[in-house]
Amino acid sequence: MIGNSEIIKSKNKFVGKKDLMLIAGPCAIESFDQLYEVASHIKNLGGEYLRAGAFKPRTSPYSFQGLGKEGLEILKKVATLLDMKTVTEVTSEKNLELVAEYCDIIQIGARNMQNFELLKSVGEIKMPVILKRGMGNTIKEWLLAAEYILSQGNYDVILCERGIKTFETATRNTLDISSVPVVKDLSLLPVIVDPSHACGNKKYVEALALASVAAGANGIMVEVHPNAGKAKSDAQQQIGLPEYARLVEKIKAIRNIIT
Ligand code: PEP
Ligand code: MN
């Protein structure tokens, strides 16, 4: 591990060799009640990291774009009440300062993996960053994108595999599970997997998450919603609270076998 921040350094809590980072939460912050309900469930299952988007990069400009600053305020309030750490996406340099003020870990989404100015700006603020792999990018391009952050002196970078575009249409993307061992071979950075965006279907999330843990991922980031059918974004891929509880149990069982 080459990061300096407490989050990266505290191996017992985070992504050390034996420990697994479990990040969970809804795709988007929709209301205080929605976020509090899912976050308290995650916390009760031992989860420390809450993910939720306030600025949503949607394919259509007419889809729900996120609650913006109001969403960040809700995120901070919920995390403070439950003593959790938060992950949220920054979509532009315009909102970087604001996002950085409200969260513990900044997420750069797949669509911004090669937004080099944003990467450099995130490199300048010394906060942990999750850098998602672009859906059309090679591992080499992904590692070079990470270098943009590292080269500015911010070493607290976590890579996140989230599936890539292939000719396959049965799933939203194709999880490139081989990127986990390849990245571990080529880089010292921790690598986590987001099975939700990889498959786009709640039926397959558990299988992909378990495969990722078995492949040696340092963590999992999964979308969980208290009432997924009514979610304002990514309704098909968010798992419910009982499914998340079952997933956590199975992840623990796999970890016990492989470590
Ligand atoms: C997300 O995690 O909310 C997200 C938009 O993911 P991605 O950038 O991988 O599509
Ligand atoms: Mn999503």
Write a concise synopsis of the structure shown.
Helix content is 40%, strand content 14%.
Helix content: 25-40%
What class do helices, strands and sheet pairing give? alpha/beta
Which molecules are bound in this entry? phosphoenolpyruvate, manganese (II) ion
What order do the helices and strands follow? HEHEHEHEHEHEHEHHEH
DSSP strand count: 8
In whole angstroms, how far apart are the ends?
18 Å
The number of helical elements comes to: 10
* Unreliable residue stretches: 1-7, 9-17
Radius of gyration: 16 Å
pLDDT averaged over residues: 93
Main beta-sheet annotation: 8 strands, parallel, barrel
How are the strands of the biggest sheet laid out side by side?
Answer: 1-2-3-4-5-6-7-8
What is the percentage of strand-forming residues? 5-15%
What best-fitting shape do the alpha-carbon axes yield?
globular
